[in-house]
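Why do we care about 3D structure at all? Because function follows from shape, and shape follows, mostly, from sequence. That is the central idea of this module. The next example makes it concrete: a single protein chain, its amino acid sequence, and then its structure expressed as tokens.
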Amino acid sequence: MQELDTLYLDIARVVEGADLGRKTRKLLDAGLLKMAKKVGEEGVEIAVAAMKNNSAQAAVIEESADLFFNLLVLWAHLGITPAQVETELTRRRALFGIAEKPGSSEAVKGEK
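And the structure:
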């Protein structure tokens, strides 16, 4: 997704000291625990938005954008690139036929 790659590059430039975004700089300065907390919060907000009502699509899209932003900040802070995550997804697809985590289907069985 081209926009995510562009966003990642912008965030990486802030990590390197560019003055591109106050929110990004503030989050980076807050440290790893704050970044990890924001990723978790956004994941929960997506789940809550999805469960609230049948017309949750717009809310889930908005919260997903927030999650991607915070996840990309965390990745950039840790020196992880989107290409590295894509490589892991490719590896999983080659092993399991789909990019799911091994054992994931066991957790879903009880939800049917």
